[in-house]
């Protein structure tokens, strides 16, 4: 009994009044916060690694990130990039150079003698030694370490190591992950293993192919704990690297649903919604999205049906100023 008392942790209480509130800092608002862990997911071959390397290249040369308007020019940053999927000499560095990154600011932790894992002390040491503001671990399965990925009680302690490092160094940590093969379910359940993987991070991004244009990819925010969900970003991957094209209203569930929908004639409700939208936009002009949605609701058309009809019609969404607008594609005008 006396021995148990000695081993028991000492109770320490902290009042909220003793805590100094602070605002969240952002590497890329609202997608990647500083001092937190972010998850980037997608199917193999959909451009996750190339996307992250392109962001790294922009950061190392002090260029603005896509669709941002910084008040002052960004300072060039150091980035640590760890991957087990591609070699640095024939894939990672050539891709990084193609994106015009500063090679002196892209850093690798040597894993030749011992692989890195989430609880490796070298991660924090490397961040502090280099002053890196971004650490990328690609993929999760190679770096999470020895644990049952389906067990929340094993996954969360592993992530807690990264969460602590991110908080104490105020660096952004991004973990890249593959999706599972369970099509036709909500996006949050496409994460392999425990749902706690998504639960542990503060932001989760999803990258997939644009069903309407196979040459395009879409990055959508699957989860956002610290800010309103950001607009989706459409980009292309080509021989010359990544080109960022436009913002979009697409959601994570819509992006994944576009690949699991059964082919064939739309159901009656969707057909009626398609006819209503086609008639509403028949003048070929841009119409404010909020007004269109209000008219659809007045007509008794649900937003889920409207989104499906809108997608099947190929309605073009744009945001020239502060509001979203809809119009029919040119071949529908």
TrEMBL record:
In which organism is this protein found?
Ruthenibacterium lactatiformans
Q: What InterPro entries is this protein classified in?
A: P-loop_NTPase
Q: What is this protein called?
A: AAA family ATPase
What Pfam families would the database entry show? AAA_25
Q: Which domain of life is it from?
A: Bacteria
């Amino acid at each position: 009994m006396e021995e148990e008392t000695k081993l028991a942790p000492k109770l320490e209480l902290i009042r909220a009044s003793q805590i100094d509130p602070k605002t969240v800092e952002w590497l890329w608002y609202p997608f990647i916060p500083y001092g937190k862990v972010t998850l980037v997911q997608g199917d193999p071959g959909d451009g996750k690694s190339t996307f992250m390397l392109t962001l790294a290249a922009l950061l190392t040369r002090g260029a603005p990130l896509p669709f941002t308007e910084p008040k002052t020019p960004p300072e060039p940053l150091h980035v640590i990039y760890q991957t087990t999927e591609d070699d640095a000499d024939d894939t990672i560095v050539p891709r990084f150079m193609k994106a015009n990154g500063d090679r002196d600011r892209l850093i690798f932790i040597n894993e030749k003698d011992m692989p890195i894992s989430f609880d490796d002390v070298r991660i924090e040491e490397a961040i502090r030694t280099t002053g890196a503001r971004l650490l990328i671990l690609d993929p999760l399965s190679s770096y999470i370490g020895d644990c049952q990925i389906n067990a929340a009680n094993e996954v969360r302690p592993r992530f807690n190591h990264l969460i602590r490092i991110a908080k104490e160094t105020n660096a952004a940590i991004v973990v890249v992950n593959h999706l599972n093969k369970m099509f036709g379910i909500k996006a949050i359940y496409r994460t392999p293993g425990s749902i706690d993987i998504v639960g542990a991070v503060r932001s989760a991004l999803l990258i997939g192919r644009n069903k309407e244009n196979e040459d395009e990819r879409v990055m959508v925010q699957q989860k956002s704990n610290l800010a309103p969900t950001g607009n989706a970003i459409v980009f292309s991957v080509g021989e010359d690297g990544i080109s960022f094209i436009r913002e979009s209203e697409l959601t994570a569930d819509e992006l994944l649903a576009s690949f699991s929908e059964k082919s064939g004639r739309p159901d009656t409700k969707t057909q009626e919604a398609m006819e209503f939208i086609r008639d509403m936009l028949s003048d070929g002009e841009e119409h404010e999205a909020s007004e269109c949605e209000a008219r659809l609701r007045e007509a008794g058309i649900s937003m889920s049906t409207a989104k499906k009809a809108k997608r099947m019609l190929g309605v073009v969404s744009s945001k020239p100023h502060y509001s979203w607008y809809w119009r029919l594609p040119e071949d529908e005008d």
